[in-house]
Amino acid sequence: MKRHLFIAGGGLAAICLTVALLGLGASSIRHRQDAATPDFLLETPGNADIPEIGASALPFDDMVTEPEKPVRDIAPEQFFMPGDVTAKPLKRIEPRLPLSQAPARPKPEPVVLRHPIVLSAGLIRFGDRLVQLEGLLPQQADRTCGSDERWPCGMVARTALRNFLRARALLCKVPEKGWQGTFVTTCTVNSVDPAAWLAQNGWGEAPAGSPFEPEIQAAKEAGLGFFGSDPRDTDTPLATGEASVSGDGQAMTGSGPDL
Fold first, then answer.
1. Residues 6 or more apart from 10 whose CB is under 8 A from it?
2. Which of the listed CATH numbers 3.30.450.40, 2.40.50.90, 3.40.50.1400, 3.40.640.10 matches domain 109-253?
3. Which of 46, 101, 106, 187 has its CA 20 to 30 A from that of 258?
4. Domain spans of the chain?
5. Distance CA 44, CA 259 (A)
């Protein structure tokens, strides 16, 4: 019995000792925190320190105003120019003189051009150079005409001009030293203008102001060339790529002495 009481009393004493040690530790920690925290006072300003609305330390007349700076142009091409240049208004100046005089265009002179190759009605090739007859609109060799039944009027017009020239040399006003591309000019063959011949037979169209407008208008009224029906003899077989043109032999073949 005594033994049991001694064991119970020892356990109770151990519990009390543990509680006492925990209380002493908590008190020691609390004292340390209070000693490490400094005193801090929050100061609040009084109403006397706040200036009144609208009040100014300096009179309005004595206030210093800075001049407005000019707005700089933000265009990309103006980025590298100084501000005193881009902010000023533009001033128109006289254009500069050309660095060199433009070369004078060579004056066309009558030149004999041989071995013509007709590409279309009004367009003739001489080697690697082209001549477009002046006063006529350029034509295409693959042009077709006719409202009901289409016919290859561009090919027929080309063949008609070939038959008229018969590979004769032409006298054309061109630059004596040659040219590049297509040169628009006037030509004659045996003193006859092939452009006028095309206009009279309806194988050409004239731009505004052309001297061949009366001839082309007369060809329209007569139903010739582009403005008429197919002039080919369809009963006769045609050679490949060529077309025969019926009509007055003198007009279509351009008979006459060669140059």
1. none
2. 2.40.50.90
3. 106
4. 109-253
5. 119
